[in-house]
Amino acid sequence: MKFIHLTDTHLVEPGARLYGLDPRARLDAAITSINAEHGDAVCCMVTGDLAHWGAPAAYRALRESLANLAMPVHLLIGNHDNRAAFRAVVPETPVDPGGFVQFAFDTPQGRFVCLDTNEPGVSWGVFCARRAAWLDAQLQATAGPVFLFMHHPPFPVGIPSMDRISLRDCVPFSEALLPCRARIRHLFFGHLHRPVAGSWSGIPVSTVRGTSHQVALRMKEHDKVPGSHEPPGYAVVLADDTRVVVHMHDYADATGRFDL
Predict the structure, then answer these.
(1) Maximum Cα–Cα distance for the chain, whole Å?
(2) What angle do CA 72, 80, 21 make, to 5 degrees?
(3) Per-residue pLDDT for 194 more than 90?
(4) What sign does the CA torsion over 186, 192, 197, 199 have?
(5) Which of the chain's ends, N or C, has fewer CB atoms near its CB within 10 Å?
(6) The whole model's pTM is what?
(7) Residue 222 pLDDT greater than 90, yes or no
(8) What is the CATH number of the domain that holds 158?
(9) How many domains is the chain built from?
């Protein structure tokens, strides 16, 4: 089974630019690449920060662009998003009983569980008891493998400026996972704007560069988040009964290709 992990599109109102870039043009280039090279993927998972300022016009532009994908797309929200504005423009996205943008669906390789870590007014992630109760119910409802998707990483990654705005108070999240941790095959997240992979509490994890601007790898203490114009990317994920392989693809990389 192949699927796409795309994140941090940061769309702005049509005609505007962000850090000298056109986020929609970069997203459209990703969509062209995905359709041409990976049109056989079963779906595309987008892990939040869909719009930079949460503007309705940005969500409308996002919807127009993603309509060109050759596969179903599933949208999560991040700290830059406005939950109400997003739901008004994309009302078909499922929500849990508390109104959080959380949903789950089954695939040939297991259940995909998508989480909402957005908390209005702050940049860091929040996963409260109500959200954790929904997650626990989803995990208990299936005995098979699970893939998790969220915006904020629930652990520090060694970039201090980003670690300050990762998921805070991870206890509700960790406790919900505890009974089923052995069945969680992979955790995909966004927020970092960097290609990062490893494991957390025995769970394999990964993220990828955004389609918009990036975060520089600065592991020394710094007051502000260090920006970067490194190439944008998306991940191509291959999963079967024995493996999960994540390919990080810098789709705008213009360096030469040749036979070795």
Answers:
(1) 55
(2) 80
(3) yes
(4) negative
(5) C
(6) 0.97
(7) no
(8) 3.60.21.10
(9) 1
